[in-house]
Amino acid sequence: MTERARAGAAGARPGAPDQRTRTRRAARWLVSQHRERIAFTGFPPEVAPQDLDEAYAVQAAFVRLKSRDCGPVVGWKIALSNPAMQRFVGLHESVAGCLLDRQVVSSPARTRAASYGRLLVEFEIAVELGADLAPIGRRYTRADVDQAVAAVRPALELADDRGADYASLCDHGLQLVADNAWNEGAVLGPSRRDWRALDLAAARGVVRLDGTVIGAGHGRDLMGHPLDALAWLADSLSRRGIGMRAGDVAILGSLVTSKFPLAGQRLVFELDGFAPVELEID
To answer: Which pLDDT band, with edges at 50, 70 and 90, does 6 fall under?
Structure first.
């Protein structure tokens, strides 16, 4: 028995469900929380993931259930690319999540505020893969992933924090992982296949709410360079035996702090070298 298994066995309560059973129950619990629009709250103790590996196992089970309504996985996302945000939720690294087919749309787009517990929007650089990034026995480098990128485009991430209490979020970092990092879709702007002519690290993104600038950032805010963020994402998936496939989309983290738009408002994200991404909130 491994040290980890011994520790788990020693800490298990008599009659407590095993990890596989906990994973299934946790995923079903998340589905019911979303369906019933229940405010974000901690897992019941008997199904709560015990570590990051278990949290990702719950995420995979949750995504499988969610895909029945939202379609198959067509891409990936990064959350918490900033170390300060990681500490804020009690984690020590960024978080990977999935994008589902029927939740990924093109700009201009509309969504309803009432469809979310609390809508939050992030402002991202997205890549389209033209080649697979399969699991490998070493870390991915920027040069590795550069060769796999077919196109780059600006994007908005749509997420739902379900009214989370941010003051206590540091106690629920593993739940954020399990809950697919709160993703509820993405809005993709026009793509450029000549993206190597651009300086992605220096590219500036500006966010306007009803015409007023409310935030700005640069590509270098994504782990130093957007392709470094992509390499991190490929590594995170590779460690779990998951590959990224040609045709997948990856959104690489927000250049600007999350915004919480309300019904009747309009967001525009302008990234240097690209047409704007537009979202109307009904």
So the answer is: very low
Which residue(s) pair with 186 in the sheet? 104, 157
What b/e sequence results for 63-91 when a residue is b if at least 16 CB atoms lie within 10 Å of its CB, and e otherwise? beebeeebeebbbbbbbbbbeebbeebeb
218 vs 6: which has the higher pLDDT? 218
Percent of the chain with pLDDT over 90: 83
Q: Are 124 and 253 in contact (CB under 8 A)?
A: yes
Predicted pLDDT at 16: 58
What's the whole-number average pLDDT of the chain? 92
DSSP the chain: --HHHHHHHHHPPTT---HHHHHHHHHHHHHHHHHTTPPP-PPPTTT---SHHHHHHHHHHHHHHHHHHH-SEEEEEEE--SHHHHHHTT-SS-EEEEEEGGGEEESSEEE-GGGSSSEEEEEEEEEEESS-B---SS---HHHHHTTEEEEEEEEEEEE-TT--GGGGGG-HHHHHHTGGGEEEEEE---BTTGGGS-TTT-EEEEEETTEEEEEEEGGGTTTSHHHHHHHHHHHHHHTT--B-TT-EEEEEESS--B---TT-EEEEEETTS--EEEEE-
Q: Which residues pair with 259 in a beta bridge?
A: 121
Q: What is the pLDDT of residues 187-209, one digit of tens each?
A: 999 999 999 999 999 999 999 99
- What integer pLDDT is reported at residue 7 of this predicted model? 31
Residue 202 buriedness (CB in 10 A; 0-12 / 13-18 / 19+) = exposed
Architecture in CATH for domain 70-281: Alpha-Beta Complex (3.90)
The residue with tokens 């015409």 is 211
User: Which range in 13-27, 80-94, 164-178, 253-267 is most confidently predicted, on average pLDDT?
Assistant: 253-267
